[in-house]
Amino acid sequence: MKTLTITEGRGRLGYWLKKAAQGEDVGFMFEGKIVALRPVEVVSTDYALQEYGLTPGELAAAEKRIGAELKMTRKRGELTPFTGSKNDFR
Fold first, then answer.
1. To bridge 4 with a disulfide, which of 9, 29, 35, 82 should be the other Cys (CB 3.0-4.6 Å)?
2. DSSP sequence for the chain
């Protein structure tokens, strides 16, 4: 593993991120510990579970409830598509 201080890595951070993304072991010394750079795959369910602390069951229930609310809102004509026009903000 290539281990760098923050000062060493700062000037060529893009270079070291590219190396880590290609699978090379790269770490930074921070407060006496080595913090490794590693590519990770993030999916929306992973984000919801980590960001909001939801269990898989709670996430599924929220998804179902939000879907039903969207369906009803569309049916009542209260949901309009965003086109990017300034008129969308009226």
1. 9
2. -EEE-HHHHHTTHHHHHHHHHTT--EEEEETTEEEEE------HHHHHHHHH---HHHHHHHHHHHHHHHHHHHHTT------S-GGGG-
pTM of the model: 0.49
Which pLDDT tens digit goes with each residue over 19-35?
999 999 999 999 999 99
Question: Phi-psi region for residue 77, left (φ > 0), alpha (ψ -120 to 50) or beta?
Answer: left
- For residue 90, pLDDT over 70 is answered with no
Q: How many CB atoms lie within 10 A of CB 7?
A: 8
